[in-house]
Design a protein that fits this description.
mannose-6-phosphate isomerase activity; PMI_typeI_hel; Jelly Rolls; 470 residues; mannose-6-phosphate isomerase; 10 helices; Phosphomannose Isomerase, domain 2; 8-stranded antiparallel sheet; zinc ion binding; EC 5.3.1.8
Length: 470
C-alpha cells in the first residue's frame, strides 16, 4: 500500500504565505488589494505607498512559490507541483498586448529561449472580476475593423495596402482569418517612425473631437466613442507606443464583479484596469508585442495567434446543486483548474466537502470562522486532499458576508461554465453549452448564475453588436 503523504494527515487547512509581485502596471500602496492581502498574509512587512503592487501568487510555481508559516515551500509539503497557479491581480494601468502559447509552442520556445520562456507548459487562464474590470480580448469582427480603417486614416496609414485590401474584400472564414493576420502583422511590424507620427496625429484629432466643440456625443455610436477614449487613455499611459491603437482591432470589454471570462491559448489580450482573481495552468509563459517595456517577440506572436473573431463569453458561473446559492463554480474547458466562490451570509454556516484534490483558498471579503479559527480578508490556505470537510461560520451580528475563493483541479470538466463565443478560441469552444445571456458582453446588464444552461438559442443571439457589412 502506498505511503500517505504527511500533509494529508493534517486535520484542517494550512495557512500560507503567498508571493507578492510589484510591476509598473500595478496599483500603488494600500489602494491595491494585492498590497492589503500581502500585508495580512505576512508576505510583506509593510506597504510602501509608492510601490505598484500588482500580483499575489498562491501556488508552487518556482518564480513565486508559496510557503507555510514554518518556512517550508508548499511544493515540498505537497511533494509535487500543483497543476494550477492562483493569483490576485491589481491593475492600475494596461498590461502588455500578449498571448500565451499552447503546449507544443511552449515546449519549443522554452527550448529555443529559456531565459524569456522559462516554462514548457501552456497557460490557459480564467479571470473573475472583484471590481469593475476592463480588458481587451480577441479580435474585433472584420466589419468593425474595416469601418475603423475608413474612419481613422492615421490607423490606416500603419497598415499595408495588402492588409487593407484583404480586410475590405474578406467574406468567407478563411479570407477573414487571412485579413486579420495581415492587419495585425503589418501593424505590429510598421516602421516606428511612421507609427509614431500617425499616433501623434491621431491623438491630436481625438483630443479635439472630445472637446466641447465636438458634436453631441449621442451623434456617435457608443462603441465608436468608447474605442476612441480607450486609445487616448492607453496613449497617456504609454507615451509614443503605437500599441495604444490596439482598441481599433481588439474587443474592449467591461465586466462587473462576479463575472468572468476564459482565455484559451494563442488568443490576444491585454488587461487594462481593475482587480481580479486569476487561475491558470502552472506556467508563466507570455509572448508580448506592445504596451510594455519588457521583451517583445512580435514574430512569434504574429505566427501563433488563431485569428478568431469575437471576444470571450462573459460567464456568471453556475450554482452548485449541493450548496445552492452559497457556492458558485467557474469551470473552464481545461483539466488543470476550476474556481469555486463561497458566499456565507451573517448568521449562516456552510459545511463544504473536500473535493478529493489539493486546493487553495483565499478569503476575499468579510470575516468569520473557518474550522473554529478567525479568518480575515487576504489570508490564504492550502487544503490537503484527505482532510475533513470545512466549516465556515459567520456570526449573526456581522455586517456583511464572507466571500472565499477556492481553486483546485477541474472536477467538472464534463460541464464547463466558461465557453467562447462563435469561433473564438478554436477547439476550446467545442462540447459546451450556451450561457443564458450575452448582455454583459454588450455592456447592457448582468447575468444570473443558474443550475441549467439553455440548450439552444436562436442563431445570432450570441453575436455582439456588429457593424453592417461595408
Amino acid at each position: 500500500m502506498a505511503e500517505v503523504p504527511e500533509y494529508n494527515n493534517r486535520k484542517s487547512v494550512v495557512p500560507l504565505v503567498p508571493s507578492a509581485k510589484d510591476y509598473a502596471w500595478g496599483i500603488r500602496g494600500m489602494d491595491s488589494r494585492v498590497a492589503r492581502y500581502a500585508l495580512e498574509s505576512k508576505s510583506i512587512d509593510e506597504v510602501d505607498p509608492d510601490t505598484p503592487y500588482a500580483e499575489l501568487w498562491i501556488g508552487t510555481h518556482p518564480k513565486g512559490p508559496s510557503k507555510l508559516k514554518s518556512g517550508e515551500d508548499l511544493r515540498d509539503v505537497v511533494g509535487e507541483d500543483l497543476p494550477f497557479l492562483f493569483k490576485v491581480l491589481s491593475a492600475g494601468k494596461a498590461l502588455s498586448i500578449q498571448a500565451h502559447p499552447d503546449k507544443e509552442l511552449a515546449a519549443r520556445l522554452n527550448s529555443e529561449n529559456p531565459n524569456a520562456y522559462g516554462d514548457d507548459n501552456h497557460k490557459p487562464e480564467m479571470a473573475i472580476a472583484l471590481t469593475p474590470f476592463e480588458a481587451m480580448c480577441g479580435f474585433r469582427q472584420i466589419e468593425e475593423i474595416a469601418f475603423l480603417i475608413k474612419k481613422h486614416p492615421e490607423f490606416a496609414a500603419c497598415l499595408s495596402q495588402e492588409a487593407k485590401l484583404a480586410t475590405f474584400l474578406a467574406q468567407d472564414p478563411d479570407s477573414q482569418k487571412d485579413a486579420l493576420q495581415k492587419v495585425f502583422s503589418s501593424f505590429m511590424q510598421c516602421d516606428a517612425t511612421v507609427s509614431s507620427k500617425n499616433l501623434a496625429l491621431l491623438l491630436l484629432r481625438l483630443q479635439a473631437e472630445q472637446s466641447k466643440f465636438h458634436r453631441h456625443p449621442h451623434d456617435e455610436p457608443a462603441w465608436e466613442r468608447k474605442c476612441s477614449r480607450a486609445v487616448l487613455r492607453l496613449a497617456q499611459q504609454f507615451p509614443g507606443d503605437a500599441g495604444a491603437m490596439a482598441p481599433f482591432f481588439l474587443n474592449y470589454l467591461l465586466i462587473a464583479p462576479g463575472e468572468s471570462f476564459f482565455m484559451a491559448a494563442n488568443e490576444p489580450h491585454a488587461y487594462v484596469a481593475g482587480e481580479i482573481i486569476e487561475c491558470m495552468a502552472c506556467s508563466d509563459n507570455v509572448v508580448r508585442a506592445g504596451l510594455t517595456p519588457k521583451f517583445k517577440d512580435v514574430d512569434n506572436l504574429v505566427e501563433m495567434l488563431t485569428y478568431s473573431m469575437g471576444g470571450p463569453t462573459i460567464d456568471a458561473g453556475a450554482y452548485m446543486e449541493e450548496t445552492g446559492s452559497k457556492v458558485i463554480r467557474y469551470t473552464p474547458p481545461v483539466p488543470e483548474f476550476e474556481v469555486m466562490m463561497l458566499h456565507i451570509n451573517p448568521g449562516e454556516t456552510l459545511n463544504y466537502k473536500n473535493p478529493g484534490v489539493p486546493g487553495i483558498l483565499i478569503i476575499l471579503e468579510g470575516s468569520g470562522e473557518l474550522d473554529g479559527k478567525l479568518v480575515r480578508p487576504g489570508r490564504s490556505y492550502f487544503w490537503p486532499t484527505d482532510s475533513p470537510e470545512l466549516e465556515f461560520v459567520v456570526a449573526k451580528d456581522r455586517r456583511g458576508p464572507m466571500k472565499v475563493a477556492l481553486a483546485h483541479k477541474n472536477c467538472h470538466l464534463h460541464s464547463p461554465t466558461a465557453i467562447n463565443r462563435m469561433n473564438f478560441g478554436g477547439a476550446s469552444s467545442r462540447r459546451t453549452s450556451v450561457p443564458p445571456s450575452p448582455l454583459p458582453y454588450m455592456g447592457l446588464g448582468n447575468t444570473t448564475p443558474s443550475f441549467e444552461r439553455e440548450e439552444a438559442i436562436k442563431d445570432g443571439a450570441l453575436d455582439h453588436a456588429k457593424m453592417p457589412k461595408l
